[in-house]
Each structure stands twice: as structure tokens, then as C-alpha cells.
UniProtKB/TrEMBL annotation:
InterPro entries given in the database record: PRTase-like, PRTase_dom, UPRTase/APRTase
CDD domains linked to this entry: PRTases_typeI
Localization: Cytoplasm
Domain of life from the UniProt record: Eukaryota
Annotated GO MF terms: adenine binding; adenine phosphoribosyltransferase activity; AMP binding
Organism, scientific name: Heligmosomoides polygyrus (Parasitic roundworm)
Domain Phosphoribosyltransferase: 3-97
Catalytic activity: AMP + diphosphate = 5-phospho-alpha-D-ribose 1-diphosphate + adenine
Name of this protein: adenine phosphoribosyltransferase
EC main group: transferase
EC number: 2.4.2.7
Pfam families xrefs: Pribosyltran (PF00156)
């Protein structure tokens, strides 16, 4: 809905194997192993400025992987917007070069 209201493209970032066609991948570490996220090749044009919208910023692993996969597409992440941030987990530190806006910040674990 955000993309529609702004009149900009929507590009989903999904776990490995959930998108059709050739994809660009980035991996990240979770508590109990590693996972991979993807975007479709050609979905983001080189030079684009991208805003990432996500539901939760906890440890920052998934958000860092999202930034990495967008950089692999030769685009730039201008900002990340999250609905909820769990500040005690220091997820922002994983993407220190990217501005992050949080709708709700929980400052206690």
C-alpha cells in the first residue's frame, strides 16, 4: 500500500526459494544457523534509491542482509523504516550507515 500511495515500485525481499526466476542473494546469521534472502534479478535498477520497510528490527541480521542484497543490485538504501524496534538488541549497529526510522521503540527487554 505504501508503494501504491507513493507511486513507486514495490520489490519483495523473500527467503530463498520463494521468488520465481533468477535471484540475487544475501545470507545472514540467526540464533541457530544461517538463512538466505533474495530479490529477483532486474527488479531493482542500478542507481535506484531504495527505502526498506520491515515489521521488526531486533538483532539486525535480516535488515543487514536486505541492505546487502540491494547493494548487490547496484542500488542504494536511503533509509529503513520499521514498525517495531527492540532497542536493547542493538540491531541498528548492524546497519550503521543507513538511517533507521522506527514507529515504536521498546527500550527494555
Amino acid at each position: 500500500m505504501i508503494a501504491i500511495l507513493l507511486g513507486v515500485p514495490f520489490v519483495p525481499i523473500r527467503k530463498k526459494g520463494k521468488l520465481p526466476g533468477d535471484c540475487i542473494q544475501a545470507s545472514y546469521v540467526k540464533e541457530y544457523g544461517e538463512d538466505v534472502i533474495e530479490i529477483q534479478k532486474g527488479a531493482i535498477s542500478p542507481g535506484w534509491k531504495v527505502v526498506i520497510v520491515d515489521d521488526l528490527l531486533a538483532t539486525g541480521g535480516t535488515l543487514k542482509a536486505a541492505v546487502d542484497v540491494i547493494k548487490k543490485a547496484n542500488a542504494t538504501v536511503s533509509e529503513a523504516f520499521v514498525v517495531i524496534e527492540l532497542a536493547p538488541l542493538h540491531g541498528r549497529e548492524q546497519i550503521s550507515g543507513t538511517p533507521v526510522t522506527s514507529l515504536i521503540v521498546y527500550s527494555e527487554a
